[in-house]
Amino acid sequence: MKVGILGTGDVGRSIAKGFAGIGYDVMVGSRDANGVKAQAIAKDLGVKIGTFADAAKFGDIEVICTLGAGTENAITLAGPDNFAGKVVIDVTNPLDFSKGMPPGLYTGHNDSGGEQVQRLLPKAHVVKALNIVSNPDMVYPEFSDGKPDMFICGNDADAKREVTEILQKFGWDSIIDLGGIEISRYLEPLMIVWVLYGLKTGGWRHAFKMLKK
Asked: Mind listing the pLDDT tens digit for each residue in 66-125?
């Protein structure tokens, strides 16, 4: 199975390492395939490197790991038709740092980054996932207080089942499907809750757990 990853930042690196670790053939896409970050990922992880368009064409599954503000441009460069019929995992958050910390959401609360990605990729099956935890904990999350939960949303049931299987391979025991892609309007603000707790405690290795009776 092939996976294309858009983004060479810390999130893209973590996701690429995770997929390579479970046996996927990985290509990481960058605006500049010869750039320092891209070449470092190729050297450190032994994965393929290409442009955004190369990665979009390459993958059977695509993962968008760009900064929220750069997502639309990355998809434009990648070519929306290259995502047609594919499962697309959206890990992004539309964070607005223009007023400092904590960030806001440049989408407001009547839209979301997940919905924007789905509109930009109308022929793809977008699933929001992994946006509510730090990049070191996206794969094999281990916490002294126990296993966290991962919330996902998307419009296509088969796509969510496939993403759930991937997350299980990544070490997530509990994946909770909250509904359609519009639920991104709630998952993306949850990342701000995660940031607020980090600012208060000075630590960035925490996650969420749904407790039930």
From this structure: 998 999 999 999 999 999 999 999 999 999 999 999 999 999 999 999 999 999 999 999
DSSP 163-184: HHHHHHHTT-SEEEE--SGGGH
Q: Which residues contact 45 (CB under 8 A, 6 or more apart)?
A: 13, 16, 17, 20, 26
SS3 76: helix
Judge whether 14 and 8 are in contact, CB under 8 Å.
no
Burial classification of residue 192, based on how many CB atoms lie within 10 Å of its CB (0-12 exposed, 13-18 middle, 19 or more buried): middle
pTM of the model: 0.97
**Half-sphere exposure of residue 198: CA atoms within 13 angstroms, side-chain side:** 18
Distance CA 61, CA 3 (A): 5
pLDDT at 68: 87
Going by C-beta distance under 8 Å and a sequence separation of 6 or more, which residues neighbour residue 14? 135, 136, 138, 139
Report the Cα 143 to chain-centroid distance in Å. Answer: 21
Question: How does residue 57 score in pLDDT terms, banded at 50, 70 and 90?
Answer: very high
**Which among 57, 173, 174, 190 has a CA at the least distance from the CA of 114?**
190
